[in-house]
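Hi W., the magnesium ion complex you wanted:
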Amino acid sequence: MTSATVEFIDRDEIMSRLVNSVQDRNVCYALIGSRQIGKTRILREFARRVGEKAIVVRLDFSVNRYSPEDFSSALIQSLTDEYAKRVGGRKRALSHISSIFQMLKDIQRLRFSIVIEADEQGKPQISIKPELAEEKRVNKKELVELAFAYATKIAEESRTQVVVIIDEFQYLADFASYPGLKSIMEIFRHTLDERGNNVSYIVSGSRIHFLTHILSDGKSPLFGRFTIIPVGELEEKYTCELYMKARKNASLEEARLVYELVGGHPFYLLTLAENKHGDETPRDTYQRLLSEPTGAFNLYARYIIAEDLGSHAKARQSRFLKILHTLGDRTMPVSEISKQTKIVLTSLPWYLQQLISYDLVAKSKDGYSVKEKVLRDYLTITTDSV
Ligand SMILES: Nc1ncnc2c1ncn2[C@@H]1O[C@H](COP(=O)(O)OP(=O)(O)OP(=O)(O)O)[C@@H](O)[C@H]1O
Ligand SMILES: [Mg+2]
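Structure:
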């Protein structure tokens, strides 16, 4: 979301766990943390550090809202690209890859064709076609299974560790709404259990509540398959370092003020670093970016709300907004929320539970509150326009 990329800071502990997992192949990690906290940046840095030691492919649902077909094709193509680089000679790569697909096709009795052609530069390009002309579509389940099985085969053939990174993993779980993919999480579990010790998976995402549920609930097919690494805020020292890297002439004093204001949240810091006017205090900048309709924090808060509540009808959206505005920067028990919003006490638990599942609201012993600072402050300075 910020324009300039600042040199990578800290995250040493998480990074060393991820890098070690390339040797200790049995571990699959899940990076879970709130929006813009730095998960994708960690994964990109990990891929860079691993370099030639493993075949690392990264699929990011926040960059491409993949359909099951797109996801499978992208996984197959990225693995092919990485494998082809290592085989030496494009002709050889082409023939190796053809024979891998032939093997997989025989094992899995696929009802579609895999076409491998060299592009203008001689790089192998994979396309998937229905076997019979009258069939318009390929079977989604078979295709997804093929893509995962291909990762395992590439690891075997190349005798190299393969690491598949799936960023914003919750969207893979959403494939369950496609016909034939209701059991996507079982398919993925099967992949994990059959992958052999040359393939590992790293998943990541910002839907904390949902991901924690699908990865650690005893009833979930993925229970026990991932070790969760929470990605939290940066420590003060690194926060200041990041701020001063992003804002060349900033003093340590200014950086500390920013830390006091927004904590160690990289996106907040970088946004302040980028937008602060010379004569403003960080607090003034923060207020300006929050209150102006085109301010970065104002846009961010509205984006979060629209993104999370967008799936609901207008009438429901307005009740969610009423609750959020009522909470603002306070913590309230359900009875108080009911009194102030005039939503009946019996309907509120459902709304609050939804807000919790979107990670917008948190529940503590004192009641309910809005989780994210920028959102809290946005809700406090804007009025409920519904
Ligand atoms: N350790 C870091 N060093 C330098 N910059 C960082 C670091 N962590 C995050 N950033 C920067 O902060 C911003 C947000 O990071 P990133 O996109 O990785 O977050 P995310 O957790 O993947 O967010 P989302 O959930 O929205 O996908 C980016 O501009 C990124 O470059
Ligand atoms: Mg990300």
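The beta strands are 29-32, 55-60, 112-118, 124-130, 162-167, 199-205, 227-230, 361-364, 367-370.

W.
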